[in-house]
Amino acid sequence: YFLAASGIEEIIKHFRQLKPKTLVIDSIQTCHSPEIKSPPGTTSQIRQTAAHLVQIAKLTNTPIFIIGHVTKDGAIAGPKLLEHMVDTVLYFESDTQYPFRILRAVKNRFGSTNEIGVFEMTGSGLVGVDSPSSIFLNERPQNLAGSLVSATIEGSRPILTEIQALVSTAVSGGIPRRTTLGIDRNRATLMIAIMEKRLRLNFSNKDIFLNIVGGLKVVEPAIDLALIAAILSSHLDQVIPATTLVIGEVGLTGEIGRVNMIDQRLSEALKFGFKKIIVPQGNLSSQSSGNQGLKEISTLQELAEALFS
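^ thats the sequence. predicted structure below, dont judge the formating
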């Protein structure tokens, strides 16, 4: 049932008559209450209309989805009070270059905010993706320097993601660029500084571009080692075998730190046919330590040998 109305009283009136199992409001910025004299979208209007919706949801035990506008930066437009009034805040992220959509929770009073849902836009609408790893690795190029796969964790779900790096000579006299897509720029800059210090490399005249393929955003430090490996591959122009996967956090001293949920990451990697998996020293559990394809390293100095041998 569709209702073309923006007045909150009229919406609630029809809600009580129809008694729907779910109510969707699109959007909260266009709703208004006659009790408030300010125009729709203002702080007072959003507070009043949201309060009415929260009250009716709790009285009737009905889930209500409130759609809100977002800014160019991707944040919810308007006052932050709307986020405080509701139980869950979900962002529907997308990249115009890819048909994939990611549903991510940034607030959840009744569950984890680390879980994500991956969807694909098809001719018949959005379809859930049961195996995100297969989507993100579907068209991975072969035998090209600067490409590498790592295993990340989103909530309780392991996802294999391709990391691409491009190292090129900067324009003479220009400031070297550090461009990242899907990766925290500060984290990437830190990894580059560690490489310069611990591996004695000079990137002062190099532009470095980093990308997570598929429009996915990764924030966990378990991809640190994979970032360094991809940069090293592009810098040396040496191809990393397509069946190699790298997992590990990197500290300021160049040591390789352990990551959590290692068994889930390894299981996903082995399922997709990866034959050499580089992991932090001492991170393997007893059930996975017997696999011949696992290579444990403890420092960055061991990385190049493990990658290209």
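The longest strand covers residues 157-169.
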